[in-house]
Amino acid sequence: MPELRPSSNSIVVYIFIGTIILHDHVLRIIAGSIIGFIGLCYVVLEFIPSVEPPENMRSAGSDYENATETI
Predict the structure, then answer these.
(1) Overall pTM surpassing 0.70 (yes/no)
(2) How far is CA 68 from CA 50, 64, 65, in A?
(3) Cα angle: 44, vertex 1, 39; to 5 degrees
(4) Which of 8, 22, 24, 47 could bridge 32 with an S-S bond, Cβ 3.0-4.6 Å?
């Protein structure tokens, strides 16, 4: 199973916001469903190794190229 990247926290936020919006009015249900769906799409993309996270979701100072280098 692949290791989750540091951007996983923002994915949890997308899913959380999507689920707390889901109730009451039709527009809130639609908005919550869209946000939750985006969060679930990010979860699926985390497990596809050929897809890199967007620039704004990468952690600062994280260099994937030198991750295997011993210090």
Answers:
(1) no
(2) 18, 8, 8
(3) 20
(4) 22
